[in-house]
Amino acid sequence: MQLDGLVRSVRSPEFDDVTFHEVHAKSVLNKVTGSPMPFGWTVNPYRGCSHACTYCLDGSTEILMADGRTKPLADVVVGDEVYGTEQEGSRRRYTRTRVLAHWSSVKHAYRVVLEDGTELIGSGEHRFLTDRGWKHVTGGHGAGSPQRPHLLPGTKIVGTGRFARPPHRDPEYRAGYVSGMVKGEGSAEPEASDRSREFLAGFRTLSDASEPPISPSRSWQKGFLAGVFDASGSYTREVLRVASVDDAASEVVADALRGFGFRHTIGDYERATGARTVRLLGGLGEQLRFLHTVDPAITRKRVIDGTALRATSRVGVVSVEPLGIELPLFDITTGTGDFIANGMVSHNCFARNTHTYLDFDAGKDFDTQVVVKVNAPEVLAAQLRKPSWKREHVAMGTNTDPYQRAEGRYKLMPRIIRALADSGTPFSILTKGTVLTRDLPLLSSVAKDVPVGLGVSIALLDRELQHRLEPGTPSPQARLDLVRRARDAGLPCGVFVAPILPGLTDSTNSLDELLTAIADAGATGVTVVPLHLRPGTREWFAQWLAEDYPGLVPLYREIYGKGAYASKEYRAELSGRVGRLLRKHGLDRGSRETPRGIPGDNSGGNPGGRLDDDASGWPAGSFPLPRTPAESTRNATEGDQLRLL
User: If you count Cβ atoms within 10 Å of the first and of the last residue's Cβ in the chain, which end, N or C, has fewer?
Assistant: First the structure.
């Protein structure tokens, strides 16, 4: 990783092999421009987040590329086009997608053996698409952790099975290819004609290369099938065929197909052309096996765009075995969130759009490559001492969580808080991390001198659902305890009940239970906001929903359509129920001023993702409002806040 000011990179087993890249930053105070947010400055001591996990495969795993060929996973590079899948109505179809990231790590390795002999070597966290949704290779996160969906003997993985090895381009393959081109009456397409000229260079005459041998070798047969397919074959509408007016050539094709175990049919003569068509049977799996076995030159005849994943495209798991060793394992991020690994549909770690915003190239993994500005407190203090600094509100937690697990290691926030307070700068913190508990005494002390706002995000109480949505984050109960401790320390603390998930967390009973717990914890205010599905988040969430809750997909299509925000009808209905519950629990206290726009939305005004005027804005206590003279000696009280997650 090329990073300005890099001091060292540290691998830490205690953080699930997260790599921390320690840098010396030149600037820490970031100006927010072109945004309707009610703050003008941010401080982010971390880039990336140590909350999540990785998913990896062995580097020799063959990946289906967009040209129909395969490449070992270790050799795939950012910018390559590969095949992934996308949901289209009730069907999942193959589609080309670009590689956005590629990285490696050393993990405990497992071997997954399938019924057809396919072997897949990967980490326990890696996921494959099955007939019952996405499942991890293994089920456990560790002792006492809930079991995640995982592969078992008999599980059916979606895909075609292992890929065939490409042919060696030895002299016999070359001769077979030229013969196939001649028998198929040639091709004017550059890929085929260029290959023909290259292969002919090793022979004295055309007849030396094109005459079929009496007893053709397997290599010659592969070349012949490739040549005749390039010349007179086609692959359209999921049908692969070779047409020939030469009976002898048709027999050579059929004999070669039988030799490689391909089922096929030979059609009758066509009146118009006098040709007979040899058609391959067996669906996509056999078509890919043919293309990989013989390796035709013409790329357009190898594409599978739009081909549906059939119900018959399932291969059963025989066993999942720990290898007992750690191996270098690789993963990629693609635009579709998946790729085809040795024939099977494989999940990848989706690189959120925040990679670019956080100064990460697409090839850097947001979850396992965390940049730490180890000199952030000192640089910030120097910037705050400048005469030009006007002591405007500084927001923390608007991009990456300042109290993620890494903060327990680096302890940057106490010095950042002290630098802000010493300069008389009001600030706010938004977090999911309970590491904030450590700094409550300090925050309570500095709140006597500068306005302070605290915001905690709590989306739900269901521990199992929370673990699926936010792996690596503190439990809802731990975050409720954080709110309680902040209030006991005399600090304001607002809660974002966000995001509300239609069909999962939006029932009246679920909301009532959650708001009861939040009220009991003493929160100074609550903002309830339904899920926003912006680009990046939308792709990730759609994939997750289809994996874990496929029955809810139609509901989300109805509520969100192709937009980022819930429909007006849904928001109105939810707003009515939320308003009644907020009043019931005494959480309908408004702030003294209501910044416009929903946290994290850049459209300003009243975006489509908000509820109504009474429920929008930032929860009381999370925004450091300017003080009146009478308040100058009291703790910071209520306000509004920031950004969602």
Answer: N
